Amino acid sequence: MALIYTDFFHYPKWVEYGILTTVPLARQVLANTDLYKNSVPDLGGSVAAAAFYDLEGTLVSTNLVHTLAFYAKNQPGLLSSLRKSTRTLLSLPVFAATDQYSRKVFNDLFFKSYKGQTEDRMRFFAKELFETILKPAIFPGAYELIEKARSLGLRQVVVTGALDLSVKPLVDHLGITDYVANHLEFVNGVATGRLLPPVLAAATKASWIRQFAEREGINLSDSYAYSDSMSDLPMLSVVGHPAAVNPDMRLRQAALHHDWPILNLK
Amino acid sequence: MALQLRRKTHESVIYIDRDSAPRIMPSGEDFILEDLPIGTRVLYPNPPLKGLPNREAAIRYALNHPHGCDPLFAQLEPGMKVTIAVDDISLPLPPMATPDIRQTILEIVLDMLAGHGVDDVHIIIANSLHRKMTPWEMKRMVGARIYDEFYPDRYYNHDAEWSDGMIKIGETRHKEPLNLNRRAAESDLLIYANINLVPMDGGHKSVAVGLCDYVSLRAHHEPQTIRDSDSYMDPARSELNNKCVRLGKLVDEHVNVFHIETAINNRMYKGDMDFLLKNEDDFTAFDRMKFEAMRYAMSKLPRQARRKLLHSRPAQYEMTACHAGKTDPVHEKIIAKGFEQYAIPVRGQCDILITGIPDISPYNVYSILNPLLVQVMALGYHFNFYRNKPLLKKGGVLIVQHPCYDEFDHNFHPSYIEFFNRLLPETRDSFVLREKYEQEFANNPSYVEMYRRGNAYHGAHPFFMWYWGENGRQHVGKVIVAGAENAHVPAMLGWERADNLTEAIAMARSYMGNSAEITMLHQPMIGIADME
Fold it and tell me: How far is Cα A233 from Cα B477, in angstroms, rounded to an integer?
């Protein structure tokens, strides 16, 4: 872990690269947790290649807002639920605009909406979130795509900017053991509205994939990556077989420009 | 020899003399006028055979008077499971004017099935590893009535990558595996409705290829089989056909197949574009006017619009024969009828063969004729349109007229792009490509998914397209592309380029000698050079 921290999670380096603007407050927390160790299990073996998947919009039709809306609806008390839901609804145009501008700015803004929510409550509702929202939203083609990749012996890895709480049941359902997701910072069991760094988005996904590949002996030239969003262009660019899945307009244009396959899993 | 050659031997064989008019040549989406050297032999398509006056009656007669088995109605029992398989959009070319022959066959067969209490009926498009047809194309092919009743649950495309939807039939004595569409193979009766455009179509290839999977196809869609086919348009000398027949025998051991085959004439165009099939020396003033009008209108349009315009012109084919029953006797009769239409008696091979590549191929319907498809049309289809021996001498020069633009359809041909840009710079050796890369492409999850859920050709399909040109590639000494708008596409294909046909002929003569015999295939044509 220390090695990973010094090499990859060395925040001044991210600041220098312009990916982060400041050194996050919770770096000490991260340095002393095994969150990432759990999300990247050491499977051993001699797997030569992997398939990396973005999650929301790629394998499932939902996005971060659906998860937020679900938790907003399931607040302790009717008034609280109503207030949170209304705020979420009103924030949608802002979320959309910031997402177009910068995924990092979007994340900073978006995850503030979780401020004040308790960790136990969020964990308690994670199963229901999966059953009612996420499971029905899995694209029919996602099962086929994963199955085909698995049959080739490719290691299956989900790399997502969604919250670990919501991702775990989903990847379990899809039979994927390797995943990395964002983690909310909790202080005394209450969300601060910040993400534990490094925040997985855009270039950090690509960096994480490089690290993962180096550590697990995976040949990125033979690996595959799937995403729906232009913000994942770095992630798609580091593998030999990138593909745009249900892409937004900008990624579609990029995929056409680079002659990448464009999949429709709907 | 030359004087002997220049005697008029057949109405479809014309020799250019001092007074000959320039010839129309397709060059992708364009049509150009070219003066050919005196003495050039030009092969035209035969005049269309007369179509059957009442095709419904002909189909009914065929169903009631089959070859080698009981009439269709006598094979039907209430409650039985029946599957009807039909050819995909690669036949005929261009797509024919509605009603399509398949629609007519289906309407008659479905009425007969309903009349005999057969309700469990599925219609499967035997697209093999071709792209799946779009709902619009499927509706156009069978008509609104059948489409509305059967689509999508009982009228769908074959999916060669759906493992649960396939079943292992067995192996031939040559260890060629055969997996078939489960629904078709487990039916009490499999009816196959075919349209025979070229002699390679139909017969045992219909079921054994049209409804199989990649593993089965790999056994015969490979370079050695193509090299051993002389040509694959001549079933008697085609190793590809031999393998299909072996697989077909295996099919017949396990599946009750009732084959309906049809032959069509070669009336590709009628009315405003019929001049494309005529000898330019016989043009009327009206023909010349139509050509100039078309050329002017096309010159004002961007390439995409020209392409769309050409693809929107349905072919005016007419049915010339229909036979039904067991595959072998049916196919034998249809092939004979096909050669009656297509065979052009030709005496003497040529040193230089010229062919314009029109924007028509089985693999680019409503799409782009990308460089790999230009290759397959030149060294595959056009080169192989012969019987007995090649029209071009061994080591001769093939001149291709086409812009060779570097354009691909991302939806239909995604794996072609990677094949062209990644593999061809490394090697053009079919055997190396097959052993090193074919399975990687075939199993690429992205390509599999685009084939299954989109309208993409299978990941392995560009390999088959490359192998398809294998016997042509081995035979010709040189390929020159006239009118290529860039240098890199011909270079990637291993071809030379010339700015225009005159320059290409000069280059070819410098290679073959000034007395080289030149023959031109007047495209668009469907014809077989029946070599003496």
Answer: 45
